[in-house]
Amino acid sequence: MQRFLMSELAVDPTTLLAGYRKPVLIVQGLEDLQVGRADAQLLKHANPSAELVLIAGANHVLKAVRTRDRRDNVVAYSDPGRPLADHVVEVISTFVEESVAAQR
Q1: Phi-psi region of 82 (alpha: psi -120 to 50; beta: other; left: phi over 0)
Q2: Which of 7, 64, 81, 85 has a CA-to-CA distance to 74 between 20 and 30 Å?
Q3: 29-60 burial, b for 16+ CB within 10 Å, e for fewer?
Q4: Percent of all residues in the chain with a pLDDT value above 90, rounded to a whole number
Q5: Which domains does the chain possess?
Q6: What CA–CA distance (Å, rounded) separates 58 from 65?
Q7: Are 76 and 62 in contact (CB under 8 A)?
Q8: What is the pLDDT of residues 13-61, one digit of tens each?
Q9: Residue 101 burial (CB < 10 Å; 0-12/13-18/19+)?
Q10: The CA-based dihedral angle spanning residues 91, 97, 98, 103, taken in that order and rounded to the nearest 10 degrees
Q11: Dihedral sign computed on CA atoms, order 28, 33, 35, 37
Q12: Cβ atoms of 34 and 8 closer than 8 Å
């Protein structure tokens, strides 16, 4: 397992995304403790046709968290009862619907 994880860390997502030609949705929680807004912008820059959506009150796993409360943010990762942040479902479902419609 460790070898697999190490190989994944060596992959540059911007390089992968730059050559990808299908629809791409980048959803960035603004309370993400692991990946910052600048990282999402780098992905968007790598593939300008990608759609970037910033979600207020969302953490790395897109669950609703109180802003500036690190403990609440971390607890949310493993809380199955914690809802997704506002607008996450709508953003993803709209993207999927539009992508499918564009391919028809």
Answers
A1: beta
A2: 7
A3: bbbbeeeeeeebeebbebbeebbbbebebbbb
A4: 82
A5: 2-103 (3.40.50.1820)
A6: 6
A7: no
A8: 999 999 999 999 999 999 999 999 999 999 999 999 999 999 999 999 9
A9: exposed
A10: 150
A11: positive
A12: no
- Show the CA angle centred on residue 6, arms to residues 5 and 10, nearest 5°: 115
- Cβ neighbors of 38 (< 8 A, separation 6 or more) are none
Strand 51-55 vs strand 25-29: parallel, antiparallel, or unpaired? parallel
Q: Give the pLDDT band (50/70/90) at residue 63.
A: very high
Confidence at 1, pLDDT banded by 50, 70, 90: confident
What lies within 8 Å, CB to CB, of 65 at 6+ separation is: 31, 57, 58, 59, 72, 73, 76, 85
Task: Say which residue the tokens 């820059």 belong to.
Answer: 45
pTM: 0.88
Q: How far apart are CA 54 and CA 8, in angstroms?
A: 25
